[in-house]
Structures are given as C-alpha cells and as structure tokens.
Amino acid sequence: MNTLDLIHSTDHELIAFAQAGSERACRELLNRYQRPVFSLIYRMVRDRELAEDLAQETFVKVFNHLDRYNPKFKFSSWVFKIGSNLAIDTLRKRQLRTISLDGSRKATSEDEIAASRITVASGDENPEEQLLARELGEELERAIGMLRPEYQTAILLRHVEGRPYEEIAGIMGMPLGTIKTHLHRARNELKQLLAHLRVGM
Amino acid sequence: MNHRDIRNDQPSGKPAHPIPPILEQFAEDQLPGMETRKVREHVSRCQRCTQEVDHTRKLMTALDQLPRFAPSARFADAVMARVDLSQQAVPARGSSFGQLLASRSGWAVLGATISAPAVALMVVAGLIFSQPLATPAVLWEWLLPRVQVVNEGALGWLINQLNSPEVRNALTTAYSAFETIPPVALAAAALVFTLGMPLSLWGLIRLTRSSWSGRVTYAN
C-alpha cells in the first residue's frame, strides 16, 4: 500500500486500514478532515488555542475508538458529531459567551480580543468590492459568534461544510424539523445582526 | 406547501404570502418542484417576498463563501502522538472463558447452553401447573417418587457400568448425602433456576438480533 493508494482510497477503506494499525491511513483521514473540523470548532469557541486542543481531542477519540464506528453512517458525520459536541460542552461549561463578542470569549482586554478576532481575507480585485467583502466577512463572523451554539453548529454545517439537512440532523442528534427551525432562526438572527451593513444584508 | 404554510389572504384580496421558512427553502432551492412553481409565481408578483428572497440569498452566498481555517502545522503529529492503534490491531487475548465473553457469538453460545435445559424445565413446570386442582403439595407428592425412581435408575445404571467397589461406595455415599437434602431446598433451587432462564433467553434473543459486525452507536 503506497501513498497514492491511500489518497485514492475511500474513507471506509482508510478506516479498515487504520483498524489494522496503519498510521498512514489515520494521517490521510486527518488530512481530509482536519480543516473542516478545526474550522467548525474555531468558529464556535473563537479561540485558536482552545480550538486546536478540542480538534485534537476529537481526532484522538475517533482514532482510539474506531471499533465504535458504524459504517452505516458517513465517517465525516461521526467526526463532526464528536467535534461539535466537544465544542458545545466546552462553551456550556466555561460560559465563555458572556465575555467578548468580537474575538475570543476568554479575552478580557482589547489586545486579547484583537489577537483572537477572526479575520477574513478577500480575493476580489476591485478595492471597493474588496472592502465590502472584507467588511461583510468580518461582520458575518462576528454575528455567527453571537448565535447560540446549536444555531452556530447548524448554520456552519449547512453553509460552510455544505451538509444536507438530514445529515445535520444525524450529526446533531435532533429531528429534521428542529434542524430546519434552528436554521431559520439562525438566519433571521444573522439578518438582524447584519442589517446595518452597506451591502444591505 | 399546505394550508399552514400560507398566511391568511389579506383584506384587500391580494394573494397570501408564503411563510418565511418556505421562502427560505425556496431561496435555497430546497422546495419540491410543484411548490417551487407556486412560490416562484407568487414571488414574481410580490415585491415584499422578492426582497425577502434576495436578502436570504445574499446571506446564504456570504455564508457559503466563508473560508475554512487550518490548524497549526504540528496538528497531525500532536494527534498521532496520542493515538494507540496497537490496541485495535491486536485484540487482547485472555483466558478461553474471557475470550468467550469477549465476543457476541461467545455470549450466544453461553446463553444457549444455559437456556436449553431451562426451556425443558419450564415446559415440564408448565405441564405440571396446568393440571386442574393441582396444589404444590399434591404435585410434590406426585413428583418426588418419580424423581427418586429416575435417580435410582440412573445411578444404578452408572454403578453397573462402572462396576467398581470404590466408585460404587463413593456414589452410594454421594446419593445418601443427596437424600439428606431437604425437599424444600431442592424445590427452592429448581425455582431459582427456572426464574433465571427467561433472563437467559432474553439475553440470547438480544444478542442474536444485534449487528455482529460492530457497534451501532456513535461514540461521543
């Protein structure tokens, strides 16, 4: 089994290799899912260091308990479920939401807030469009940070990760109707929070 | 789209507006074909709903364009340093009884072994208790001599087979000891055994109905 084989293997094949003890299969699975899982957690906890710890914990749990994986479900759904549960549990335990809306919820000073604020780079060429896109991106990140953790999870899985409604319901362990309600309310809150923008959200 | 998805007609007689979640699903192309046509027809004539759909689509576009963030370069190494794949590669081997209990098939075999005599016992008990006007005392009086006859017959056969004075003496002694056990104690043992069997059967059924290939729940 060479590296090329692993790259072209399906998730289920990689899991089988990993269960047989292949570290390279684990690394390939990490390569596929570390960015989406880290992004989801980072946007929820708003603290890069904490997000990295939680994302690590997620994958350690996954790889140490591969025997619990049910192949009836997507591997990515399982990983997202563990990651989002860890993030939501952490937010609830630490009550981080009450401290800062801009950057890290742990940040207590202006410097800490600025250091942990999520900034979005824009690829647009027109300076005016660049400014608008950057402004919208940053305001959107800020607005997402103000949502309830369950709304954040639903909206990020739907839009950033492009997951179908049914899969989000499976990941969050909620009925499909609840997920639709969460998404509707989250979008409404985002519209209200972004109503002041020049782009007329 | 059903009656709950449409607001009441306005007093002016203008057509009702689709409720916001339906407009949202329309903006996201998530409505079935028939409903999409109805909503599109309404939106094309309604400035308010057109504006609402535009706002929703702008928000969705902005959300869809949010970037993914990457963890640090040492992330994969940090994860792998805490992963123990050897436990999954080589299952721990214990005693043969431990191995039997470690697998679902082992539990099934164990359950079947315990259940088989229990079923027979329950059938006999059922037959006995289904007799009309049978009290436990009468049944016991009926059952005891027959059990003794069977025991004596079986032991006699064994003794004849072995045909050894030592073994004969030992078995006779054992039988004498068995005869000293009060009938109430024997009945209590039989009762405990009989009550335990349905539990074994339940376990057996649960085991055989479960997936054999792996756990069915997500780990958290």
Q: Greatest chain-chain interface?
A: A-B, 65 and 42 residues
Taken as a percent bin, the fraction of beta residues of chain A is under 5%
Provide the succession of SSEs of chain B: HHHHHHHHHH
Largest sheet of chain A: none
Task: Give the mean pLDDT of chain B.
Answer: 77
Number of discrete domains of chain A: 2
Rg of chain B, Cα atoms, Å: 38 Å
**Number of separate strands of chain A:** 0
Q: What order do the SSEs of chain A take from the amino end to the carboxyl end, as H and E?
A: HHHHHHHHHH
Please describe the biggest sheet of chain B, giving its number of strands, its sense, and whether it closes into a barrel: none
CATH superfamily caption of the largest domain in chain A: RNA polymerase sigma factor, region 2, helix turn helix motif
- The dominant shape of chain A is globular
How widely separated are the two ends of chain A? 51 Å
Give the proportion of residues in helices of chain B.
Answer: 55-70%
Structural class of chain B: mainly alpha
